[in-house]
Amino acid sequence: FNSVGAWSLPPPELRLPGVINLELGRLARFHWFDPFDPAMPRVMDREAVRLTAPYRGSPYRIGYFSDHEVGWWSGALFLFYSQKPASNHTKQRWVALMRQLYRGDWRRFAADFATPAGVASWNDLLRTEAATRLLPGGGGIRAVRAWTATVARHYYALAAASIHRADPDALLARLDRAGYPA
After folding, report:
1. What is the DSSP letter of 68?
2. SS3 for 125-177, per residue?
3. Quick count: other Cβ atoms within 10 Å of Cβ 41?
4. For 134-146, what is each residue's pLDDT tens digit?
5. What is the distance between the alpha carbons of residues 114 and 21, in angstroms, rounded to a whole number?
């Protein structure tokens, strides 16, 4: 053997090089909370420093995975943030993106999504905590995918920057779309 794999003993215990899975997003509570909260970069930085501390400077540390098998379930992510309160920064970003994608045309948005009862405007959409659901046969899936891509890009940008600041000499390994090392 010339290296260790995930879920084996830590690289220093086996005295073999390895790539460490930090679980940064999960432990920083990025996913499924409020990823666009302005405090999130500081939270990610703090967690990255804590999580990389045991490995910084180790000759056995090749680098890190930010997380393993992050669930970017498009429909679930879209539905989840549609139900958050208006004070949630990510809900605010969600509504802003929908408004942008539909060029401010509420009727076009409402043709692609089943909005909750009494929701008839962008402001109503922000205030409701009831689910907004994709209607079949329309073009709404493009908006769902755009939302997922927005959250994922934000996560990977923050994770990469935080890990690099915490341990600038380490490799940041990435996973492919299926969650496997790329």
Report:
1. S
2. HHHCCCCCEECCCCCHHHHHHHHHHHHHHHHHHHHHHHHHHHCCCCEEECECC
3. 15
4. 999 989 999 999 9
5. 39
